[in-house]
Amino acid sequence: MNSFDKEIAKALEATGFISSEEVLKLLTVPQDTxxxxxxxPCFVLAKxxxxxxxxxxxxxxEKIQLPFGLSKVEAVNGYLNFFIDREFLSRSVLSEIExxxxxxxxxxxxxxxxxxxxxxxxxxxxxxxxxxxSTMIGNSLSRIYKANGYCVERINHLGDWGTAFxxxxxxxxxxxxxxxDVTLDALTVKxxxxxxxxxxKASKEEPALEDExxxxxxxxxxxDSFYRKLWLAFRAATLKELMRIYDMMGVSFDHYTxxxxxxDKIPAVLDELREKNLLEKSQExxxxxxxxxxxxxxxxxxxxxxxxxxxxxxxxxxxxxxEYDFNRCLYVVDLGQSLHFKxxxxxxxxxxxxxxxxxxxxxxxxxxxxxEDGKWEKGKTxxxxxxxxxxxxEAAEKKILAYIDEKNPELPEKELIARQxxxxxxxxxxxxxxxxxxxxxxxxxxxxxxxxxxPYVQNAHVRLCSIMRKAGYVVKQEEVDFxxxxxxxxxxxxxxxxxxxxxxxxxxxxxxxxxxxxxxxxLSEAAHRFIHNDRVLGSAEEKxxxxxxxxxxCVMENVLDLLGLFPIRxx
Length: 571
Ligand code: ARG
Fold this sequence. Notes:
By secondary structure, the protein is α/β, with parallel strands linked by helices. 53% of the residues lie in helices and 10% in strands.
């Protein structure tokens, strides 16, 4: 569909009345196709051409040499309406899908690199439900960027350093737990969670514990080998569980360079800040002043010499630039951290890194759950009202499994499928609206098979797959009679398939997976309508219609994949 507008622009330019750039600016795609597939209002031309818009439209309609693939042009009340030839459209779109396959609508490599920092949880404890957002938005953006020709570096900036580990060490030793290798190897994140909770409880009665924890962390920072051994064990125990969940969700990373990775890279950053005269003392701490940007100072070093979150982010940014030479570096992190990123980016600016402009915070809203009195609230990890991600996934899986047991108990591998539908449902619920909006999470509406949900779009894909399975053969372009694919239901579906490239591109430009989530919904609706209106198997048009089913399946499969949903084939 993309090239029709360019063809129209060329043909109109040839009339000598208007430039092709002007046409491209004016041309729109009307929602209601009774007025054509493209419309150009002629009103702004009235001044330069000194004629009534209605006359201009009529003259242009008469003069234009209609480009190939368009069936007619109409002048109506100052508008110029173009109609696509349906047979031409179905032939060109569907053959392109057959030849390009899953990468139909993607772009060639552009030689650019984008770093995407996502998920990046603080470890030492389990993933909470709210971690789903950064994980799935980042996962989808990394797939979308790849489809747009970028080389993508997927980075998990684990929070694996900081006082939290001091707390764990203090509590572990206080409870006299064994520190032999075998016990440490077998440690689980659940045990760490318990330690964490007991620390919080104990420190309320004994505030000095907080100081002990800070001291323990300083000792760890100074390289104490026993503390380091404990820290490594805590880190490994959390990572094991983290990987299990990422695997289950189909999420992966190219680099697990957490905060601890930057410890030994920090002295060089401090030297550079000092050399550039950017470090100032404020209440015993080293800071970079950011008054000129109307920002509070960026804290670099505490009075006891220990470094901070921002210091490690500075080191990480410099490292990423050097290592990956990115064109763009995204941080998929909740809106609450905007100030932090502004401070880090502006500190880089003061350091003279002109590439600071390519550092982008990709913020998103929070997940809200309804409390008993009906209020929508945010769960808090600290007070224990946040659900664990694994519990939510398990619960979703159970609910879907109960549904399968009722509708299709013989389904092979039904536990796995139930889990994949469950995870996809949670993901879709997260991605379907603009990312800055808060997500209201409600079990019934997220898991429903009707409405704007994951199960609904997966089901559309499953129906296409099931027709292909029942047919038992694959149709090739040579066998298709494209004049059989021109009725309204087929045409509406084909028009949508034609827009894949445009949607994949705008999802990337806007850095918004929701663009593709909405596209998946439109595709599902059009596919359902086509299957409902145009019988495929056993009809006189079987081969042609099956070809459209194959094409739609191929587009759906890839769109689901770009969203990070499982494109399952049976349910
Ligand atoms: N670990 C942080 C948190 O859970 C998020 C890290 C985001 N990435 C970064 N480079 N700061 O809040």
